[in-house]
Amino acid sequence: MVAADAAIARLFLARNDAEWTELDDLTNPAAHADERELVADAAGRRGASTTQSGNSAYGGGSMKAHRIEEFAAEVCKRVAISLRETQAEQVHLIAEPHFLGLLRQRLDAEIRKRVGAEVSKSLARHSPEQIRAALPDDVTH
Known about the structure:
alpha/beta, 5-stranded mixed β-sheet
């Protein structure tokens, strides 16, 4: 089970209703960073110039949006690893709406087949009990 937003992702293993183990806790500091800081940092490291709007001269969206997309990809990689390591049959996704969309886009086809419930809520910072309560009643936790 994954509870995530643009800044944090928590992965849980649920063997049954009573036994939840937090496997991993990933963070994305860029989610709270100011766009100007990210652009200045990127320009300093890569030598890229930026336009006045803060977008890279090479095109594309904001650096912050790019970092959030990278974080979604990282979360998806970790989900795949966790499923292999734990031999879990399915994964449930609970994420704030926009980030849930990013996760859907980045999950590989094999993992996508194993997605059970999808809940569009921001609960990553809540207790495991609150996260579990957000899952539909018909989901085996």
